[in-house]
Structures are given as C-alpha cells and as structure tokens.
Amino acid sequence: MKKLFVFTAAIFLLLSCQKETRPNIIFIMSDDHAEKAISAYDSTLLKTPNIDRLATEGIRFENSYITNSICAPSRAVLLTGKYSHINGKRDNRDTFNPDQMTFPKLLQEAGYQTAVIGKWHLKSTPVGFDDWRVLKGQGRYYNPLFYVNGDTVKYEGYTTDLITDFALEFLDNRDKDKPFCLLFHHKAPHRNWMPAPRHIGMFKDTKFPLPETFYDDYKTREKTAGTQDMEVKNMYSGYDMKIHFLEGEREMNTGGGRSTNFDGTNSWKNVYSALTPEQKEVFDSYYDQVNEEYRNANLSGKELEEWKYQRYMEDYLACIVSVDENIGRVLDYLEDNKLDKNTIVVYTSDQGFYLGEHGWFDKRWMYEESFKSPLLIRYPKKIKPGRVDDKFVMNLDFAPTFLDYAGVDIPEDVQGISLRSIFEEKDEPWRESMYYHFYAYPAWHDVPKHDGIRNKQFKLIHYYEIGVWELFDLENDPHELKNVHEDGEYARVRHSMEIKYYDIREEYEVED
Fold it and tell me: Other CB atoms closer than 10 Å to residue 505's CB: what's the count?
C-alpha cells in the first residue's frame, strides 16, 4: 500500500511539474510589417517602444526569412511547418486544407487551451482551436466583420484595438489550469493603411528620406523587376491616398491592379461610406485639407511620385503605432497577471514589405525587403535578455519550436527546425542555405513565379516560366541591383549555386 502511495504521489508530482513548466505561447503576427519600421532594427522612421521591449528582454533575429512572401501561404506555413507545395496553400486563392496536421491541433490534444484572434485569411474554418474570432477575408480597418466560433458578428471600432480587446478577453476567461496558446494576428499595416482616429496626421510634418533605390531603373533585371506593377507612383489616388473624387473624375493609375477587375474609382468611396458619422468627422478634419493641398498643387512627374511616397509613409507608419500600443497592452497584462516569466511571446510579420525601395510598395519578391521578416522573441526562462542572433531562421521553424517546448513529438514530415538550440545557446549545426518559392501569377502586381536559394553571400533566383535566372552578390551588392548570372567572373559561383539549388529542391520534395 505504501509503495502504491509513493508511486501515485510521484506521478502526480510529475504531472504537476509538467503543467507548471510547459510554457504558454502568444504568437503575435502583423501583416506586411517591414523590418525597418521597427525601431529595434532601425530607429530612422519611428519609435516602437513596446515591440522593442521584446528585443530588450529577449532575442532579436537579424536573419529571419519566409518561404513564400504573400499573406495566406505564410500563415499556412506557420501552422504546419511545411512549404507551400506540401501544405497545399500556394497563393491567396487556394483554400487551406483544415484536415492536415497543424501545431495548434497537436497542442490542443496535449492539453493546451488554444485560440486564434484576428486575421485568418485561409478560406477554411479554423480547426484545432477552442476559441476563434477571425476577420472576414482581409478584414477592414474600421467596423469589421468577424467570424466568432461560427457566427458572423459586426463590431464598431478600430480593428487593431478590437483584436487586442478580444485577445485580452480570451486571456481573462481562459481555463487557468491549462497552458494556453494564443495566435494574435493583426490586419495592420496591410493596405490601404487607415490609421486609428487618434493617430491620423501624426506624421504630417515628418519628411521621410527617399530610399537609396527609389529611382531604380531595373537595369540587368528588365524582364523581372522591370515588369512589375507595384510602384509607388502608380498608387491609387483614392483608395491609397484617400483623395475624394469629384463628380465625373476617374482613377487613372493602375495601383497594382491592372491584372484584376478592381474598381479604383469607387473603392475609396465604398471604404469611406462604411465609416460612422463620428469616424467620418475625424477623417474629414484631416484628409479634407490633404485633398485641398493635393488639388491646388497640381503635381506631376517626380513631384507627384514623391508626394505619394510621403503620404504612403505617413499612413503606413501611423498604423504601426497602433499595433505597437496594443502589443504594449498585452505585455502589460502578462506582467500584471504574473504570466510573463513562463510565456513565449513572439512578434513577427507574415512577410516583409517595400517602403519605397526599388520605387515599390507590397511584397512577393525573393529580394531582401520582402523575403526578410522581423522576428523578436521573449521567453525569460530560456532566452537571456538583449540577445541578437544572425543565424538563418524561417517561418517553417515556429511549429516545431512550439511543439518542442510543449513536450509534444514533432512529426517527421515537418520541414522546419526547432529554435530551442538558438534560444538556449547550444552549439549545434544550423542551416546554411534557405529555399524560397513564390507562385501567385498571374495576379496583383505582376510578379512572375520564381524560386531560389540564398546563403550567406549569394542569392540565386529562377523565374522558371519565363526562363530567366538572377544571381546576386549580396556582400558587394546588398540592394540587389546587378544581376551577375551571366558575368564570367561569377561562373564558378553560378555553377555551385545551381547545384545547391537543385539539391535543396530535392531535399524539400519540390515538384518540377
């Protein structure tokens, strides 16, 4: 009898320790947040004190990359730890198969309480979550529609604030006897960049410097970068710049939508009409002045292009200020409720974004600005504060990392690598090359299908449908302006990279 008691007590103690030591997980993902728009990376544009707290109290990754630079496929990679050709979500038009393995399902089965709040964008119903409250489609900045555990509900207010309200509501109402995993996904700062009422016009008097490559002529990349439709100069005056059209006026710019049926003339009218009278009053008090100045200036050419760039930056960065404030609300909640020490908090974006580099906005390319994504992680139990790491990490790695720390076996078909060895500063082998694959063509912005590999110094890109290769020496050409694929001086590098390209495609079971 005594032996039975001791054995039972030992089992109880083991289970209790497991429950106490398994970390909570909060995964915060914004949409289209460029690395340089976080002051922990670059303080030139704005201050993000709350996101920076994660860098100060945790680790900042210098080389965080994604597998496919577009919204929904990036989210599918997060959930599965597998490339797009394996999880089936190659572009935004595909429907994510909810029957496949995802890390929230495995955590739920292992006793975690799971939730997803905010942007989902996968076209299928969330599975593996005890609670889900997700935006309809892309979502809108004001007065959004949410799917709430199967029901459609309209809320009044600013979406970034609402998403955080719902996240805090989940944390308050959760089962306190279970560890939790919360996917907390913001719509911002996705196009069309509508700031919260309290932030409208906050950057009006700021003069943002033009990026060094703003007037890129795409020389040596005419058949690739030169064919896109994502230049700042072609942004919609209405939808992007918030200029109200007068009777009979029509949008003349392509805005990245020439390959679609998007109505550039009425789009901003429709967005504006969905605001409440009070919201319109705040918008009008600022944007009416912008409208008047725009019409009186009668800009054209480079003056118009640079005016659009300034307007774009003002609204984009103001949206990020709201994201930063709301992340602060969550971090404060964790500290106030003594949850901060045993919670892994991740901040990242579904991909990078162009803030005028190469004259562009948007993402999609394997070029650095959209291939890279910010990544900051705090976990006081395992990560020393203030660390910076330069290893190649990818969004493939989130799923195995969370499963690893939850004590759940990582499925053999997961293609990512747990970040545990990096967190805990263990000297273990790590990836030296990364593979990327973009599928969304024909589609918005006219970026051709391409895949490729990157190592420490070189990047090889293959635009396989048009038969074009690009090779960049990132050490000597960090802005990727000179394609040296046909340069005889790089013949040996080209040969070596092409061998690695075909090898890594075989490793990841990429279809021809």
Answer: 18
Q: Which residue intervals of the chain bear CATH 3.40.720.10?
A: 22-193+319-437
Q: Per-residue DSSP letters for 381-420?
A: TTS-TTEEE-S-EEGGGHHHHHHHHTT-PPPTT--S--SH
Rounded distance between C-alpha atoms, residue 481 and residue 191, angstroms? 26
Q: Model confidence over 113-161: pLDDT tens digits? A: 999 999 999 999 999 999 999 999 999 999 999 999 889 999 999 999 9
Cis? peptide before 192, omega within 30° of 0: yes
- The amino acid at residue 277 is P
Q: What is the mean pLDDT of residues 297-313?
A: 96
Of 205, 202, 188, 227, nearest in space to 360 by CA: 227
For 22-193+319-437, CATH gives: 3.40.720.10
Q: Would the CA dihedral through 408, 411, 414, 417 be positive or negative?
A: positive
Q: What residues are paired with 162 via a beta bridge? A: none
Structure tokens at 7: 């054995």
Residues 6+ apart with CB under 8 A from 321: 46, 48, 195, 199, 202
**Phi, psi dihedral angles at 134 (to 5 degrees):** -125, 150
**Global confidence as pTM:** 0.95
Q: Is 240 helix (H, G, I), strand (E, B) or coil?
A: coil
Query: Coil, strand or helix: which one is 477?
Result: coil
Q: What is the DSSP string of 162-183?
A: HHHHHHHHHHHHS-TTS-EEEE
Q: Positive or negative, the Cα torsion across 353, 357, 361, 363?
A: negative
| φ, ψ for residue 264, nearest 5 deg | -70, -20
Provide DSSP, 131-160: EEEEESTT--SBS-EEEETTEEEE--SBHH
Query: pLDDT tens digit string along 219-277?
Result: 999 999 999 999 999 999 899 999 988 777 777 678 887 666 777 778 899 999 999 99
d(CA 219, CA 122): 37
Strands 131-135 and 450-454, sheet pairing: unpaired
Strands 180-185 and 343-349: unpaired
Query: Three-class SS string for 93-118?
Result: CCCCCCCCCCHHHHHHHCCCEEEEEE
Q: Cα–Cα distance between 367 and 478 in angstroms, integer? A: 10
- Stated as kind and residue range, the H or E segment containing 452 is strand 450-454
CA distance 408 to 9: 24
**CA quadruple 116, 121, 124, 126: dihedral, nearest 10:** 0
